[in-house]
Automatic annotation (TrEMBL):
The keyword Transmembrane helix does not apply. It comes from Paenibacillus violae. Pfam families: Cupin_2 (PF07883), HTH_3 (PF01381). This is XRE family transcriptional regulator. SMART domains: HTH_XRE.
Length: 183
């Protein structure tokens, strides 16, 4: 863990000096210096006191870097294609178990000729256009602003049935980090 670097970054961003932290917590400047350079490990009680001075939740100090906020700017999105219709997929952001993407369905395009299944749960929001979705024996048409969800282990397919490109926001949850199959 890199708790010391996290404390130093927060302290500097908030313009708080080591002396101020020491004054409010009773810790020595030498200890704080060693803590910020990751040469010593604090107790939970000490971390809790430091978190109070920094006005951050204790849990934030304990998060690994990969578990903190991940930012993807619009012009930095990874773009791929999927399926036989080469659907354009803009990868918005993800965590270990959740992925969000914008999927562009040209007129008549679908996620595949036949329904398919994979691990996970999906939530869809139609941003633009009209789509037809099928899962098992269930089927429905959806327009802008409509949403639907399902367990992806049951075969499913989504088709653009409108006269223009459809755009669907899709969020996929998987229990494992390896669930990278597409909708």
């Amino acid at each position: 863990m890199d708790i010391g670097s996290t404390i130093r970054a927060i302290r500097k961003r908030k313009n708080i000096t080591i002396a101020q932290i020491c004054e409010e917590t009773g810790l020595s400047q030498g200890f704080m210096s060693q803590l910020e350079t990751n040469k010593t490990s604090p107790s939970i009680a000490t971390l809790e006191n430091i978190a109070q001075v920094l006005k951050v939740p204790l849990a934030y100090l304990l998060l690994k870097k990969e578990d903190r906020m991940h930012i993807v700017r619009k012009d930095e999105r990874r773009i791929t294609t999927s399926g036989s219709d080469h659907l354009k997929v803009e990868h918005l952001s993800s965590t270990k178990n959740v992925r969000m993407m914008l999927v562009e369905f040209p007129v008549g395009a679908s996620t595949g000729e036949l329904p398919h299944a994979h691990e996970g749960e999906e939530v869809h929001v139609v941003i633009k256009g009209r789509v037809h979705a099928e899962q098992g024996e269930d089927a429905a048409e959806f327009g802008e602003g409509d949403s639907f969800s399902w367990n992806a282990c049951t075969p499913h397919v989504v088709r653009n049935i409108g006269d223009d490109t459809a755009i669907v926001l899709i969020s996929i949850y998987t229990e494992t980090d390896g669930g990278r199959e597409f909708i």
